Fold each of these.
Amino acid sequence: MEPVRILFVCLGNICRSPTAEAVMRHHVNRAGLGDRIEVDSAGIGGWHVGEPADERARAEARRRGIDITGRARQFHPGDFEWFDLILAMDRQNLTDLHDRAPTVAHRSKARLLREFDPDAGGDLEVPDPYYGGSRGFSTMFDQIEAACRGLLGHLRAERLAS
Ligand code: 4NP
């Protein structure tokens, strides 16, 4: 059976989306679903292509027992074909994805990650922590963690049930 393929997208692919990729992979593997759910991440912009994730993001993840590996890459149009769900960190990322979607069907794959956090309330963005202090990275991680738990529950109920 084909796996469900999830792509996390932010602006630079060095803070938020690599964190989401690592957190989601961690939960997927712990749930024994590594062969059913594939995860990746990409940035709207290309400034940091080839770089590892921001040290502050990696430090926050390490504190919580999670390794962020991999290097930044830029989102490309083929991602709309390959991935089933494309999850944006903020509304600007979502707008940028919508602008790049070739069809309505592709457009509908793009959503906000925090839509999957039942406790997110009205604020569905993971704000960019890049220019903030380390507290921004802790808040970012909490938001991503809660949303990834909700996302895994959604996938189990809606996409993996057979
Ligand atoms: P990210 O954070 O989108 O969470 O990876 C950013 C990192 C770098 C830049 C913007 C956002 N930048 O403009 O260089």
Amino acid sequence: MRTLIQWGALAATLASCGVQAATLTISCGAVGHEFELCKEESEAWARTTGNEVQVVTTPNDSNERLALYQQILANGSDKIDVFQIDVVWPGVLANHLVDLRPYSQGAEKTHFAGMVANATVGGKLLAMPWFSDAGLLYYRKDLLQKYRLQPPGTWEELAASARRIQDAERAAGNDKIWGFVWQGRAYEGLSCDALEWIASYNGGTVVDAQGKVTINNPQAIKALGTAAAWVGTITPRAVLNYGEEEARGVFLAGNAVFMRNWPYAWSLAQTEDSAIRGKVGITALPKGGANGRNAAALGGWMLSVSRYSKHPKLAAGLVMYLTGAEVQKRRALKASYNPTIVALYRDAAILQANPFMGELSSTLAATVARPSSATAGKYNQVSNLFWDAVHDVLAGRENPANALASLEQQLERLAPGGKWP
Ligand code: GLC
């Protein structure tokens, strides 16, 4: 508080010397605690620097947020100074973002090198990593114990345990219970879930690092067939319209045994109004059969400054503050956001509040990236075709083999001569 007051006085002095205070606008997500935390921390920065910050919310679905940003940026609008951007967008938005290196004073060296590399396009640091995401399997510890089951190691085990618990609980009168909820809507989140299934069966990453379309293969077909069989059996058909928040709603109400979600759901499961407080465990997503691997999609968000901002230096200051260690630590403690600063994974308070951050460190380190680097400016089109094809399979409109054969053709048309422009 004292520091804040001193900074406030300094800002007032600067203002009286003719240094203009400004109003910045930052776009923030609103999934879980995102919006309130972004607002709180941005306002703290505004108070200490004598500026003002307006926080605007954006749609929850990543691809809808991208469409909104593209609309704003295509007009060269200065409406938003700081954008919260998805890890898969640097290639798509590169032309509209400022190089942050002149402002960062090397702070990026304290973040995971892979994330900084992902944020760097053509030698320019287009974003500062803010938090990272990895797909996780949430499970009901109490129900697994009741039925003497271990957390599943493979998708086949997951389906069997989900079925067993669902049937027994329903027979006992718990008629709302389902085995497994996840993200099945036709949107970017489904691309993440489906990538996890496919990679877990060693079926690749849709497009490989060299830009070759790899999606039409027997392992990928098997993975999609496996997931399609969950719908209507252990997974409610309504999952075809679930994003992260819908899945979380069902799980937190106590109506699912297993859930696939990102780390943010952990802190929300521990709140007083959560029906399953203290009953939740987290483990790695299952392997695709005995020869498969644990595959967690790599997600996360970063902060960027718009090329059209009238206050790039101030905006970069806000970005550096929000992505710095102090704010990342608070966000990890309050809302289980995974830090992107390496040293914070040795912080005892963070590990105590979020045991999975320590226990699952190998899962968090061995994530599977979506093919956004290889497909660069075309990533969103690639993902859109992918999630549509998967959605058709899940909804029973198409069989996996046909869906992936035609997806392969569509993707190859996007990259004439095997080259992604
Ligand atoms: C999470 C991830 C992001 C991903 C999105 C999909 O927000 O951090 O990378 O694109 O989920 O729904």
Amino acid sequence: MYKYKKIALKVQKRIKDLKHFSDARLKQQTKRLRDQLKNGAKLDSLIVEAYATVCEADRRVLGLSPYYTQILGAVVLNYGNIAEMKTGEGKTLTATMPMYLHGLVGKGAFLITANSYLAKRDAEDIGKVYRWLGLTIASGVPEDDGDDESRDLKKIYSSDIVYTTHSNLGFDYLFDNLATKPENQYIKHLNFALIDEIDSILLDQAQTPLIVSGAPNVQSNLYQLCENMIQQLDEKIDFKKSEDGKKVWFTETGINNLEEYSGVPDLLAPKAHELYQHLNLALKAKCLFVRNRSYVVENNEIVLLDKMNGRKLYGTKLQSGLHQALEAKEHVKISDDSRALASITYQNLFRLFTRLSGMTGTAKTDADEFRETYHLNTFVIPTNEKIIRKDHADQIYATNEDKIKASLQEVQRMRELHRPVLIETGSVSMSKLYSHILLSLGIPHNILNANSAPKESRIIAEAGKTNSITVATSMAGRGTDIKLSDQAIKNGGLFVVGTERMSSLRIDNQLRGRAGRQGEPGDTKFYVSLEDKIVTENAPKWVKRYREKLVKKHVTSALKKPRIKNIINQAQGIQKNSEISERQNILKFDEVVKAQRNCLYDTRNQVMRSDDLDHYVDTAIHSCIDNYLPKWKNYFDITNFIYNNIDYSFLPNQSTLKDRWRDRKYLRAQLLNMIETKKQRVYKQFENKDQLLEYKRLVLLKSIDTMWIDQVDALEQLKLAVSSRNWGQHNPIYEYQHEARRAFHNMREKIYLLILRNILLSEIVQKDDGTIDLIFV
Ligand code: ADP
């Protein structure tokens, strides 16, 4: 930290000089710095000059001069670290410094947020500074949500600076790797990324990988059938749930019963694989997904809810048939089960960057995980003004009801003081309940469920006024900061009521951080009960008995015993550990896919860019033949192979192979000969060399993609299969690695065969305008 402070002080000193520069001269700095880079200067050596330049530009263009703490944060960010800066410290302005410096390189510097509204807004507002300094900047998100056509990808990804969302970048990355021409690949470099709210993106959203889906799988009626069968089963007898409620599996009795219901004698046999898989999906849908907590049913459709903030995730679907199983459970129309074409986790997407950094209000509590998993160190940046907010001790009650009553009394007290109040709940249903009670008491309030971001920021703008009461789900409205009116500050500032402790201390801290920004007064207090989710899911069994005893004795006041107070912290610790290991698991799964994906994307890129593809074609042909040779048992197998893959006009009875096919050496030579002759005949149809090269390229890419897409889809299915089995002694990751490797090997063989077949048997249609159409077999 000492090193960084020294640099920050130098920047401050240098700003004083730049104040005397004319606008024109200050703008010249960009060219000067770029020239220095061109002449071999290291980027890090330009930090003082570049940072001072932006700071001065910030003042002239936006009317904001970065504070020392912001400059210090910005220095920390340059070196691939996480800067923890509290809410209201001005992270948006802080970002201008590292973004400008890395923008100078011209290889694209990315500012990533989770919220497309913020990406657009900041690209517009903050973008003025970069433009003023002569850099290009673009927003990577569509103008209107969902209207993807409005994006000019070429322009976006050739800009010096891009403000975008993690999902837009991720999908563009995956689509780039499905392109067949280099011109259709837009992201040139993954050089520098600064992730805003990095904890939200790398920790909270790590559970859902990005998946590009394509043409639907064949629709099956098994979903409804399996759903019906599952309804007849009993928990504990037919199936069991793990203690943390995250896994569920059939018992032996369950399997026997299902065999009886379905009339299938052996459900575990490979023949019944599909049925068994659907039964597992139906079981998961029944046990692991709770209506109105994990999803809602709206207009005859399932809409998933974000685990953290209760946002409705329109357009997001569970993968690998789980979504359809859920639809069957709710008796709504079963949608097409699409297949995965390409997938990547956010963790691995961001690990592709040469330098990665992040900022957030809350990272220190999870610093170990950031260091171990991402090699990112966390630095806590001091606040610009001293924090005077009071964080009160938790108020603990036996039951939910007592807790809610007590918290509402506090809200009433604050109302009498005319202070703004923010009630933070852990779920949509809880915030609805609070809203309902407030309404019945005649207390006006806003409810923030985060359905649309622009509306969200209007509610947030209201939330800092006197008498204003806002009910919000935990993470809604992150990234927009509650500003207090002068009167509200005089009355004591914002009062945050937490209605339950969240899944981690980090998220609790996020909620607390809403109050007391920039040295303002404020209070936070959590109301907790022994019936809260975090307690019932993670606390030891005696807690339940203890609670029942209290209820019997009609104890409704706050509980004071230290032993009880500890329960919440312990429960949170257990929850946190299980989330960490879940994230690590996901990473381990994706590690396997990553190796395969890298290998495949490398080959694809070589094929896309190479001028000589004969080597690829010949390797495929030879490997294919050598792979098949030992497998053929009789002449029929061989003729079948020739007929399907080499030559439709092959006449088995007139071939010399008929009598000599047992001689493998002879057979091999003859086949290669036959292939060569056919290949030359195909190649002759192309008039010019470029067309022929393009033909080979398309055949190779098409063959690779067809099989890789199958593989991606199969890996998704496999992941689901290994994690839904009750493994006992087995290690699911190990099984997955093993199976995935085998599948990859098979895929390679299949690609070789497809190349052979596509090269020799595609239909080539010459069109009048000189172009050609290809119809692959
Ligand atoms: P954070 O993301 O850290 O919570 P924001 O970037 O939303 O904070 O900034 C909070 C508010 O502080 C914004 O209204 C911003 O304009 C203001 N602000 C930031 N930096 C400064 C500064 N150096 N001087 C004055 N106001 C600032």
Amino acid sequence: MAASMVKSFLVYHLFWWMFLVIAVSSKPPNIIILLADDLGYGDLPSYGHPISEAPVLEQLVAAGLRFTDFYSANPVCSPSRASLLTGRQPPRTGVWPGVFYPQSSGGLPLKEITIAETLKAKNYSTALIGKWHLGVGENNKYMPTNQGFDSYYGIPYTHDMCPCLKCFYPDQPCFYTCNTDVVACPLFKDTVVIEQPTDFTKLSNKYSEEARTWIRKQAQTNQPFFLLYAFHQTHNPMFSNKKFTNATERGPFGNMLLEMDWMVGEMLEELRAHDLEEDTFIFFTSDNGPCLLRPYDGVGNAGLLKCGKGTTYEGGQRVPAIAYWPGHIKPGVTREIASTLDLLPTIANIAQVPLPSVVLDGLDMGNILFNHGRGLRDTLLYYATFPEPDIGVYAVRHKQYKAHYLTSGNSNSGDENHDPDCRPSAGQKPHAPPLLYDLYQDASEQFVVDRKKHLDVYALMYKIKVQNEALMSWAESEINKPSNSSLEPCCNPGCHPRPECCVCKSKFTPAIMKV
Ligand code: MG
């Protein structure tokens, strides 16, 4: 009798231990996307920059998987971010052409399904810290908290859309004409402006503190979490907090990069403090190529790639990317083609949540990440900064070949770029036959492949272009929706006169507001 009681006791406890082990091991991993702004292909030491300093990111490179052929979905911010979050090309999301402004009435349509919303199937806790740039809209309609994020802390657009930086950083020269017609940069907590103007000299410390506090809170629960940490670095105009001003030999850009690197380090330290590093998949990348404006003030670098931000040349969209997950992703380098479009399906697979029931342009990167194997993607479509439905794709990459059917320079690639193809004066130009490059032999897109010797490749590229364009459906443009200055975020809604009255809860008073 006693023996059978002992047996029952053991079986009962064994059952519960097994249940607990399964419950614990079935908890999906945490996900962190680290998204730099306008960081170019050639800006990190591991991507060839001789002067840059980024010791923490270099640690991730050494212990993670570095991509050589990773692409942002678009050469500018809003469409690129919409695609990263939805796994869909900009035309499908409606986030085209160009970018949102503080006055924009549109935004990422609420019916689009973001990574944050997808992860809710497994009850992920979700947060966005930093830049949003997918619309604010009337009554904060398009803010992150309406797009699957439980919390938001940051400036919802780019800091170059606020009055000139001289107002915020008196020791630095002003990069832009000081536009006093717009509201000062608002810092949001969820849908409330908590500081306006934002004190940029303290912004990175605030973001860091928010990230650490949020992770600390998550560590106390049994819920998996998703953090999108979207840095303002390294977007123009350049600034950094006191600690990083004059911190590097690369100047303002290098200082800003090192400051972002420190923020990544702070975040990692918090993860490690709670023993969460091996339970967390981290992916670092950039939203588009480098801005090459004003070379004397410090700009990003596309390395060996042609042109930069705003163009569909390689420098516009091929960006650094690092996947890091100790114990799950082995260190190495991959030459497989992948895109920010692929993050949603990859993360859905890692978290074991269902894919959204929509047409996706992204493909799972699992075999690249976990086996260092072949990727599912051999083709990329390049939609321009200002795409048009009746024009379609500008360029197509298939394996090592890339065909440009249209090219255009862009103001973000610089009036003074040494390469005239990159300058804004190089307007939209059709190419028939297309400019075909072999990116394995000529990553810098300088020498057009001999057409007579490669008629089959030209024919294949055209077939891919036509087939893919037939599959694209263009949502109504959100960016072309009418804009209105009354939509600019203001900490004193309804106040008068604007924009001067939109100043609150900040001890920091910019010089321009004192006038
Ligand atoms: Mg950007």
